[in-house]
Amino acid sequence: MDRPDGPTLGSQEQLFGSLVVALGAPGPALAHALDRARAAAAAFGAKVEAGDDGTIVTTLAGSGSARDRARQAARCALALRDVLGDWPLAVTTSRAGLVGADGLDVTTAMLRAMPPYTDATRRARPIAIDGTTAGLLDARFEIVGHDGQLGLRRERPGADAEAPRTLLGRPTPFVGREREMATLEAVVRGCLDDATAHAVLLTGPPGVGKSRLRREFVQLVRRRHERIEVWIARGDPMSAGSPLGMLAQVVRTVAGVRDSDTLRTRQAKLSARLSRQLAGDDLTRVTEFLGELADIRFPEAKSAQLRAARRSHVLMGDQMRRAWEDFLAAECAAQPVLLVLEDLHWGDLPTVSFLDGAMRNLRDAPLMILALGQPDVHRLFPQLWSGHALTEMRLGELSRKASERLVREVVGDAIAEPSMARIVAQAAGNAFYLEELIRSVAEGRADLPSTVLVMVQARLASLDPEARRVLRLASVFGATFWRAGVTALLGDDGAERHVGEQLDELVRRELIAHRDNGRFAEEYTFRHGLVRDAVYGALTDADRQAAHHLAGQWLERAGETDAMVLAEQFERGGDRQRAVAWYERAASQALDGNDYRTAIERADRAIACGATPTERGALLALQAEAHRWTGEFDAAATRLDEAAKLLPEGGGRWYEVTSELLAARVRAGATASLAAVDVLADRLMDAAAAPDAHAAQIIAWSRAAVSLVFSGAGALAERLFARIEAAAVDAGDRVLVGRVHQARATRAMAAGDVAGYLDHTMESAQAFDAAGDVRTACVQQNNAGYALAMLGALGEAEAALRKALVAADRMGMTSTAGVARQNLGLVLAYSGALQEARAVEERGIETAHASGDALMTACGHAYLAEILTIGRNYEAAERAARMAVTLVGDRDHEVRAMAQAALARVLLATHRAPEALVAAQKAFALLPVVGSVGAEAPVRLVHAEALRAAGDEGAAREALRVARDRLMERASRIASPAMRASFLGQVPANARTTVLATEWGVD
Ligand SMILES: Nc1ncnc2c1ncn2[C@@H]1O[C@H](COP(=O)(O)OP(=O)(O)O)[C@@H](O)[C@H]1O
Ligand SMILES: [Mg+2]
Questions:
Q1: Coil, strand, or helix at residue 513?
Q2: Which of 228, 384, 439, 457 is least surrounded, with the fewest CB atoms within 10 Å of its CB?
Q3: pTM of the predicted model, to two decimals?
Q4: Are 256 and 231 within 8 A, CB to CB?
Q5: Environment class of residue 628 by beta-carbon count within 10 Å: exposed (0-12), middle (13-18) or buried (19+)?
Q6: If you measure from the C-alpha of residue 171 to the centroid of ligand 2, how many angstroms do you get, rounded to a whole number?
Q7: DSSP β-bridge partners for residue 836
Q8: Could you tell which of 174, 211, 236 is best to mutate to test the pocket of ligand 1, judged by most ligand atoms within 8 Å of the CB?
């Protein structure tokens, strides 16, 4: 394009900052416009130049933060719009680079891309704005979607602050909360000064004054700490328990997204806002997954991670959690953050748990969380951040003196002493009651009503019937409602006009309040939850149902994104079919948020609303997954069984369900059902895959093969492996690649090929990592560490396990962290670091024990026995070994063999040959059924040594010969000479086997 090459705007000048460009026409008008623009821009310290192509270029450069400059630029652009009338305008910011010529090119190109003005669009037309500038602006600036770009419409005056609630038309003084304010101030100061995360939970009955205290505190914080980011989310009775609902609100508010924005605008706003602190791949990932969380969905075509996550609830949950934490960490690094959760008793478990994780991982960040709720918030979320810095405050009643002050300030000194005493006594320190009582007195009602409900109802009764009707219908939406929504419910033609008047009147009567910055336009809230409840209770059953149905339809049209809200509306509205679909979505969101109980419950509600068979199949599959995560395998199997029958054969879901069912049957271990396993495997192999289910098919084969390999159904597993190897695997589908490698690794392990196991395990870890499946990648990393240990590559094993441990701790994967510690303990002992080995092993055992995992606890004790034996601490070693034997019972062949071998080893070391032999023989007898190779060498070795100690020289030599041969055979399969050497030399049992073989002269 053309660019002015005058001396002032040559590319040499290279200015930093923001640009506002206005597009006019060359000619005499330009000079005039330039004067006006200069006058308007002077206030912003901007430099204004004219280009000879008729543009006016305003540059904002100099000191100050990027945010300050963007704000100035936006204001300057708005001021220019006022003086330049219908000239197209655009504002852009170049943060890191040079504005100069390039920035100008971009800006002017934006302008040229705008369609020409018409009379109709002239005044309302927004100013074109780039993502960077938009992302730097706060919510005060109204950003809208506009011709596929973003547009700046206006700056809302003071929209940032909440309008104060009034009593009898006046704002009331804030009374009697000095102590609570002081505590809150101390907490926020501590968070900021020491850069630590701290949560405050403020509980109290409705009306006591939680929200008011919060409002005053937020105002104070905003005044005192200019840079702090304050984010507020509110619970609502209609969306109570909506998975991640509150966090989604936070994300949408932070990004300035409104539900009425188009998807493209929402996407642009989110990514603009996140680019404030994030860049590159992180920005893309965090945007996509916070988008998923806030229902601003991005297409998965370009994103392998998104595609993978949408196929797995666990992965989706992990990714959203990671995105949230990365975002919060980046924000906290740039400035302090105060996150407020209003009415958390209507909140949701996943939000609570995401914040729990954030508190754990951002312990040293200037972050304050302030949650408010009714006392039963504890029953709903029993473990509310109990593991973190948490201050809990029960907000008590207002004191008599504080109450009197409030009364006096509102009604004046004229009030008679007996009236005052009665009001104060009756309100009993509840601020809401007190306000209502003051109203009664002011309205000259002498007899004070007995309860607050009666009080509110009396007030409602004095309303015009039409206003009451408006209010009743509004209550169907919950604590928050919208003018257009109420209009839609009223249904008649004139509604539009008079609803506005009614609402104004209701605001004046202080029953509702208008809210700026709402999700949809013209948003209102009930003044208090108690008012809403009183109104809602006055609806007749028939009216209520009809209203809910219409409300659901309106919300769906308006772009409501909360599945629970819609499900509730449609169920209460009697539209069960639609309720099913929304409940299913809500259940699936709950699973994403690891809220298993809620997921099961939601799915039940969907089924109860009359789901079709296919829907039911999908819901049962979802419930089975939730059961699996809580360890209820029988319940999972039952649901899977039913789901497999309901889902169409050959579809993605069907493959998933059938392979899981097969695994469940194998797990249950009933040999009687092995025939049933056969049938399932055959069906998996014979079914014709739907066109979009090829990956699901291969993944299902892999899943089935892995579970069959060690179950004594090796032949069947081999048939599945053959199918997998013959299938065409799309190398771009990283999850699929990861699964296939996982299957190959298991197969290698079953065949005693440790090196092969290691290779495939590492490949699969890499693939899962690339797919963003950090959780599975971490598990595989841990397995790789174990394999390296078995191969004697102790340094590498230690590194791999430590890496897995860090990842597992970060993700809160307790049991994986426990397993990693157990493996690490053994590796450290092999390397001679006995003290640390013992400490690490004991921590691993603690974790396993705490999570009630007896098998892992047993395994840890077996390892510990081995470590202690190496350290010649025989007494403790014996205790550990016996504990391992007891704990494992007859549960797992491998761990049983390891435990007995460890016991035999101590007994041998303490010269109790006959007992040692008994234990060694028990271990030895298990070898044919032991799956992996980890246990074999120690078992054979101790068996041979025990035989010799018991005096049976011949049998001992023979046993050792077999042990040595097996070992050599294993070693010969390891391709790398270095690996082979470490396998034979660095693993104690292996090394001793070869040494003894020479000593004993075994040929
Ligand atoms: N300390 C106070 N001083 C003055 N008015 C108060 C005070 N606490 C609460 N109020 C008023 O009482 C009403 C109910 O308080 P609110 O904070 O909404 O209660 P909650 O959130 O605990 O249900 C509000 O109108 C509020 O402005
Ligand atoms: Mg409140």
A1: strand
A2: 457
A3: 0.72
A4: no
A5: buried
A6: 17
A7: none
A8: 211
Q: Which residues surround ligand 2, an ion (CB under 5 A)?
A: 210-211
- C-alpha to C-alpha distance for 706 and 269, rounded to whole angstroms: 45
User: Separation of 685 CA from ligand 1 center, angstroms?
Assistant: 66
- DSSP state string for 321-361: HHHHHHHHHHHHHHS-EEEEEETGGGS-HHHHHHHHHHHHH
Residue matched to tokens 């809302």: 156
Q: Which atom of ligand 1 is nearest to the CA of 208?
A: 22
DSSP calls for 723-742: HHHHS---TT-HHHHHHHHH
Spatial distance between the Cα atoms of 145 and 950, rounded to a whole number of angstroms: 85
What are the angstrom distances between the C-alpha of 489 and each of 468, 558, 624, 666? 14, 13, 40, 55
CA distances from 631 to 628, 634, 637 (A): 5, 9, 11
Q: 411 in helix, strand or coil?
A: helix
Q: Which pLDDT belongs to residue 5? A: 39
For residue 648, with 0-12 CB atoms within 10 Å meaning exposed, 13-18 middle and 19 or more buried, which class applies? Answer: exposed
Q: Which residue stretches of the chain have pLDDT < 50?
A: 1-15, 96-99, 120, 159-160, 671
Nearest ligand, CA 172: 1
pLDDT score at 49: 85
Q: Measuring from each residue's beta carbon to the nearest atom of ligand 1, which residues come in under 6 Å?
A: 165, 172, 174-177, 204, 206-212, 406, 431-432, 435, 528
pLDDT at position 638, please? 93
The two tokens of residue 587 are: 């259940």
Going by CA atoms, what residue is nearest to atom 9 of ligand 1? Answer: 209
Tell the residue nearest (CA) to atom 7 of ligand 1.
209
Using CA atoms, how far apart are residues 512 and 459, in angstroms rounded to an integer? Answer: 13
Q: In what order do the strands lie in the sheet with 149-155?
A: 47-50, 55-60, 17-23, 89-94, 127-129, 149-155, 141-146
Residue 20: phi, psi to the nearest 5? -120, 125
Nearest one of 5, 254, 12, 227 to 143, comparing CA atoms? 254
Rounded to the nearest angstrom, the distance between the alpha carbon of 208 and the centre of ligand 1 is 6
Atom of ligand 1 nearest to the CA of 343: 21
Sheet of 512-515: strand order equals 480-482, 523-526, 512-515
Helix ranges (H only) for 480-612 are 483-490, 495-508, 529-536, 541-558, 563-572, 576-592, 596-608
